[in-house]
Amino acid sequence: MWRRRALPLAVVLLAATGCERTTDARPEPTASPSTPVARVCDDPAAGPARAPAGAVTVDPAVTGDLAAKTRNSPPRTTFWLRPGRHTLAPDRYAQVVPKEGNSYLGAPGAVLDGRKTNQYAFGGAAPDVSVRHLTVQGFVAPHDEGVVNHDSADGWVIEHTTIQNNSGAGLMAGARQQVRANCLRGNGQYGMNAYKGGGGIRGLVVEGNEITGNNTGDWERRRPGCGCTGGVKFWAVDGADVRGNWVHHNRGTGLWADTNNNDFRIERNVIEANDGAALIYETSYNAVIRENTIRRNNWVEGRKYADRGDSFPFATVYLSESGGEPRVRARTDRIEIYRNVLENNWSGITLWENADRFCNSPANTSSGDCTLLVEDTDRCARPGIATAPLYDDCRWRTQRVDIHDNRFVLDKSVVDCVVKCDRMAVLANYGTYPEWSPYQGERVAEAITLGQDNRWHDNVYVGPWKFVAHDPSRVLDPGQWQGAPYQQDEGSTFRARDGG
After folding, report:
1. Would you say residue 6 has pLDDT above 50?
2. Of the candidates 17, 171, 28, the residue with the CA atom closest to the CA atom of residue 492
3. Mean pLDDT value of segment 239-262
């Protein structure tokens, strides 16, 4: 979160007119995604009107017909659900348990309804199952559990399916899962919870989905600080392509990668009007975040903390203890954020590192987890943690973050704010805990600000932007941000308004 960078030589400081720009005449970044908004929920693709050759037909008039025919058919069977409302047996654990390679196709108007009775729609460990053109609704999965692919089996494909108005998560994820062109709407906790107990998830594709209105249960209010809400949550996913999605109007965060995720490409998404951050990348590694349109996010949560008098720069794109790490294999060894448009959000990008959060620390909210560089958490203790390599490797470090060629636009009259909605930040807290921590004092704040290769450059700023460095008390204007010792945003332009 803190970085050291060469001081730009050709900077024209902010004039009385409110317009500031470098003398460099390089063109502004064109950060508009090429992928159109995925309006899946209002216009879902229709499934086949007739049963495909060899498919087993499922009758909505027969309660439990889908589960029974799945049990009585061999693996790799295709099931075609007729139009109408399909139901399971009236038992909370009644569900469809597919066999390997099964395929489930919904006709136009086919709905699988849990009737607020059944917890799960599709479960079991069978790999390579597909669910297409089906509406799945009314299931009551418990907290942190999901309705479709409840057991996080591998190789599933979920396409052109509407998963809505369920408790818990609309779906879970396994390795090699493909989630394409779905409507994930109005679910109680998440649209998708990409979590697999006992092991990580490799090779996840989330493409062209509409993810909206999730966390109807308002879990952060019910369990303050749980970090368990939003559009999609990713846990220990290694290799994810998240592209072309429309992530909007979720209560909480839009997309949240939390704890030892790695090798993400988050690109050409439209992320807007989420109550919290558009994107959180937390205690994770190596990502490319590019060509996204990010607008009107964090108005609810950012304002809530500002009204409390909290000085922390709550951001729309929030990197918390996350950075590039060449020793963790990925398609990049940095976190690169470029060619995005961020417009009228509550603040911009914050790079943060909690000095008290590391492996084996009581302040580590990812309790029991350690970095991808240290297998044995117990090694992160005195005396070893005080010297190399454990001094570095026991921390998730916000390092090697490259933020460039983005466009940041802020009109405070649109956001309806006076203060604290206009910040870009790189900072840490003063280390205090536990008493044996080798990271006490300003060590982490100095490192993230000046020593861990975190860099802004060649961006365009429109509006009254401020910058926070080292700690929340250091609020800088553009000239101070570009000057020593921070030396950020070389080659960037600043102006009060478009055309200014």
Report:
1. no
2. 28
3. 97
Contact yes or no for 493/19 (Cβ under 8 A) = no
CA distance 389 to 372: 13
- Cis check for the bond before 383: say yes or no (omega within 30 of 0): yes
pLDDT at 233: 97
What is the Cα–Cα distance from 52 to 47, expressed in whole angstroms? 11
pLDDT of residue 118: 98
- Kindly compute the dihedral angle of the four CA atoms of residues 44, 49, 55, 57, in this order, to the nearest 10 degrees: 100
Specify which residues 237 forms β-bridges with.
201
Alpha-carbon distance 68 to 87, whole Å?
11
User: Distances in Å between the alpha carbon of 376 and those of 101, 306, 373, 390?
Assistant: 38, 40, 9, 11
Q: Give 253's contacts (C-beta < 8 A, 6+ positions apart).
A: 229, 230, 231, 274, 276, 277, 278, 279, 280
Beta carbons of 122 and 96 less than 8 angstroms apart: yes
Give ∠ CA 326-327-333 in degrees, rounded to 5.
20
**Is 473 buried (19+), middle (13-18) or exposed (0-12) by CB count in 10 A?**
exposed
Global pTM exceeds 0.90 = yes
Q: Which of 211, 173, 187, 159 is nearest to 41 (CA)?
A: 211
